[in-house]
């Protein structure tokens, strides 16, 4: 027996979520220097880990297969994204040469001393980190989907398929 479930119970939480939503920023600030240092170290660690993954995939010659090749592309984009995010955090929170002021949800004001005005342009470019992160996740998804559908060599994950 199927119990009736009014659409109201689905629509109300969705409407409240949309109406009470706060801005979701692409990069987030970190309080106190300890949080920022740990977060910056995590970006470095993640980038190095992706480099090791690429090395391991190439050494094992797994990149000859489409699934693993897509995972390698994902790792490359994740390395670039981590470098980008590291630079954004440096510009926003560590260096004292760029002042970023949020005017409203759609506008920011950038200010820097005369010899460092080029940092404003760098900031605008690196703030578009989703242009690196989204392809990384898309390649990861594509690679995992290909591996799941049988795009890997039998026996590499400990069992053989029949």
Give the number of helices.
Answer: 5
**Structural class of the secondary elements?**
mainly alpha
Estimate nothing, just give the exact number of structural domains: 1
Write down the secondary-structure element order: HHHEEHH
Shape: flat
Over the alpha carbons, how many angstroms does the gyration radius reach? 22 Å
> N-to-C terminal Cα separation, in Å?
40 Å
- Strand coverage percent: 5-15%
Q: Which secondary structure elements does this structure contain, and how are they paired or packed?
A:
Layout: H1 8-19, H2 32-59, H3 66-94, E1 99-104, E2 107-111, H4 118-126, H5 130-148
Antiparallel strand pairs: 1-2
Defining key terms:
single chain; 162 residues; mainly alpha; two-stranded antiparallel ribbon; 2 strands; 60% helix; disordered C terminus
Describe what you observe in this structure.
The chain is mainly α. The chain has one domain (30-148). The protein contains five helices and two strands. The protein has helices at 8-19, 32-59, 66-94, 118-126, 130-148; strands at 99-104, 107-111. A two-stranded antiparallel ribbon has the order 1-2. Helix 2 packs antiparallel against helix 3. The protein is flat, with a radius of gyration of 22 Å. It starts with 7 loop residues before the first helix and ends in a 14-residue tail after the last helix. Residues 158-162 have low confidence and may be disordered.
What is shown here, in short?
This protein is mainly alpha-helical. The protein contains five helices and two strands; from the N terminus they run αααββαα.
């Amino acid at each position: 027996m199927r119990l009736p479930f009014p659409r109201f119970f689905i629509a109300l939480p969705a409407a409240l979520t949309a109406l009470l939503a706060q801005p979701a920023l692409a990069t987030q600030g970190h309080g106190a220097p300890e949080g920022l240092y740990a977060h910056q170290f995590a970006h470095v660690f993640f980038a190095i880990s992706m480099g090791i993954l690429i090395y391991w995939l190439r050494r094992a010659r797994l990149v000859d297969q489409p699934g693993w090749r897509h995972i390698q592309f994902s790792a490359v984009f994740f390395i670039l994204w981590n470098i980008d995010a590291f630079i954004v955090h440096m510009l926003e929170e560590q260096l004292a040469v760029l002042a970023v002021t949020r005017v409203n949800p759609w506008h920011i004001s950038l200010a820097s001393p005369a010899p460092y005005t080029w940092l404003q342009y760098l900031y605008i470019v690196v703030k578009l980190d989703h242009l690196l992160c989204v392809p990384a996740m898309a390649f990861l998804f594509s690679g995992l989907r290909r591996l799941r559908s049988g795009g890997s060599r039998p026996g590499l994950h400990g069992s053989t398929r029949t």
